């Protein structure tokens, strides 16, 4: 029973026996003997409140995936009926888009009347909307559109209820949420996933390097005879890894930050995916220090890397200008008082 006994979850890869004469009884005896001698490395088992929060965030991920799948099915169905609404409206599932979908289901309004349901900026596209709504919508299409739209709205209602429950569970961790929200690319949903997967006690990890390996955002270590064969990242925690990569993609769009500048430098040399994983690793390092030391995030700024090697950068820029035919004279600018 949880709370009455100390639970040790061991990695099966580390306790498996050499194939041969083995039974379940012998395996249990051997594992018990290893535990008595302190030879089993326990895996991370978060406390009960964190496990409950983890169940909620992981289920939210499933609902979001289901929501995206339903939207894609509905868009594909509209295309099969020659309804090109997605080519004109940026958000088919917005307020006005759903009114048009309901009008398609009722099959009482003409394409012109359905286009007139558009409001605000979408009204400037009424002629294009009218053409996009001139399709071959049959009874079969109307049945499926209604079914899929109702299912989509049901998933959205469940998501709303679930997010309210998640926010209630996050109330004891308001201070940690505030610290995580300061990191570029991390919003409240990603912060909830991070707390649910990591917990708030960083002492369970020996170092930030061990945490990065556990999360699966560090380079792999496959070297033999002095030759490095592969640097493929390990599997790690898939829920935490995807949340960190999502935060890295958002941080790459945040102007004036160190993470954005570092992302584009790495992307130019190593490609988009490697750059995203590298920034995810940096975000995880920041999370570790924020939660373990309870300190605020201090962004280095987008000029930090330029200032590290100011002479080298200046020389390269001067050479590029000289190759274009300019005569360059440098002088220091006096700082404003």
Question: What does this protein structure show overall?
Answer:
The longest helix has 33 residues. The chain is extended, with a radius of gyration of 28 Å. Helix 3 runs antiparallel to helix 8 and helix 10 runs antiparallel to helix 12. The protein folds into three domains: 43 residues, no CATH class; 117 residues; 121 residues, no CATH class. 61% of the residues lie in helices and 2% in strands. It has 337 residues and is mostly helical.
List keywords for this structure.
extended, two-stranded antiparallel ribbon, 61% helix, mainly alpha, 337 residues
SSE arrangement:
Elements: H1 12-15, H2 24-36, H3 48-80, H4 85-88, H5 95-106, H6 111-115, H7 126-132, H8 139-169, H9 174-181, H10 188-198, H11 208-215, E1 222-224, E2 227-230, H12 238-251, H13 258-270, H14 272-293, H15 304-308, H16 310-323
Count of helix runs: 16
The fraction of residues in strands falls at under 5%
Number of strands: 2
Separation, N- and C-terminal Cα atoms: 67 Å
Strand and helix order: HHHHHHHHHHHEEHHHHH
Q: What is the general shape? A: extended
For the largest beta-sheet, the strand count, sense and barrel status come to:
2 strands, antiparallel
**Average pLDDT over all residues:** 87
Oligomer: single chain
How many structural domains?
3
